[in-house]
Design a protein that fits this description.
The chain has 14 helices and no strands. It is mainly alpha-helical and 314 residues long. It has a single domain, classed as Glycosyltransferase, CATH 1.50.10. Helix 1 packs antiparallel against helix 14 and helix 2 packs parallel to helix 14. The protein is globular, with a radius of gyration of 19 Å. The relative contact order is 0.15. The mean pLDDT is 92. It comes from Streptomyces albospinus. Pfam families: DUF6895. InterPro entries: DUF6895. This is DUF6895 domain-containing protein.
Length: 314
């Protein structure tokens, strides 16, 4: 397809981008109790792992907002309060992660979630001892997982100051993106593989310079068409992740047209639908469907606002 010439988001129009994140954060804060684990969630390791996923997403997204420092004092304070709420109440000061590590000693989930809080100064000695024991086993290094997930584990180990359990460059080479394949093969699951490879490679956007030049060039050539495709399909969750990837590039496009369409899809209360329009129904069920794209919207807004204000764009 032919992608229309992009107009870059300018400092003057950055209010639109910032507004997406402000509304998303307001919704997330208002619905924070929906992130809580229930007794049923704690009944089995597999159920807890599934319910920890949104908690981990909340942690990493609030860490990005707190790190970028472009949201203003009110948003920064709110992001910090949500991080404290996540550690203190949702994770019981790390006890939830320690319990899961005990029940599922070779699950990488406790390591990946804990790494974000460890970086912010939180500590749980019991969890760290359990992780150390698991990492001494051969099983830890031979667990089968998709290649971009291996990058996530290695990134978490780096944050915790642990010796890497595999070679990062070799792990990157095994990913879809690391092999620079035909760009027209980007189906839904492959697109998410691409976005998460970039997230782990850049440590959630903090270090764009970690993207190898060949991959940066590949993304610069094909990302605009991918974003246009998923915008046409009104897949707002994936478009949001691709907008983050764009902001993670050494020289992002910051396409104003796409940001206008993305902002228009957001509900007045700040929630972002995953696909097409907002779902209707039970509040808990709607939360389960829209919490991820709304967190992504907050992340995308923080990254793009930061890049606009820094002047880093093509």
């Amino acid at each position: 397809m032919t992608v229309p010439a992009a107009s870059m988001v300018s400092p003057a129009s950055a209010a639109l981008v910032h507004g997406v994140g402000d509304r998303a954060l307001t919704w997330i804060d208002a619905h924070r109790d929906h992130f809580r684990l229930t007794p049923e969630d704690r009944a089995t390791g597999s159920a807890m792992i599934e319910r920890l996923k949104p908690i981990g997403e909340l942690a990493v997204n609030m860490q990005v907002l707190f790190r970028e420092g472009v949201a203003g004092s009110r948003q920064r304070t709110r992001a910090g309060q949500l991080l404290d709420f996540t550690w203190r109440e949702l994770l019981d000061g790390g006890n939830v992660l320690a319990a899961l590590q005990h029940d599922e000693p070779h699950s990488p989930v406790p390591l990946e979630v804990y790494a974000h809080f460890h970086e912010l100064g939180h500590r749980h000695p019991g969890l760290e001892a359990a992780l150390e024991a698991a990492r001494r086993t051969t099983t830890w290094t031979t667990l089968e997982m998709v290649p971009n997930r291996r990058l996530g584990v290695l990134n978490a180990e780096r944050k915790l100051g642990l010796a890497p359990s595999a070679d990062f460059d070799q792990a990157l080479e095994r990913t879809w993106l690391g092999q620079l394949p035909e760009p027209w093969t980007v189906q839904l699951h492959i697109a998410y593989d691409i976005t998460h490879t970039v997230f782990h490679l850049t440590d959630w956007g903090e270090a764009p310079d970690r993207i190898p030049p060949a991959i940066a060039d590949y993304l610069s050539r094909y990302l605009p068409a991918w974003m246009e495709d998923w915008a046409e399909l009104e897949h707002w969750d994936l478009l949001g992740e691709l907008l983050i990837v764009d902001a993670c590039l050494p020289r992002p496009t910051l396409d104003a047209r796409l940001w206008q369409r993305y902002a228009a899809a957001q509900a007045a209360n700040g929630a972002m639908p995953i696909h097409h329009a907002m779902p209707q129904g039970d509040a808990a069920e709607v939360f389960d469907q829209v919490h991820h794209p709304t967190l992504v919207a907050a992340f995308a807004s923080a990254m793009a606002t930061s890049r606009v204000l820094s002047g880093d764009a093509r």
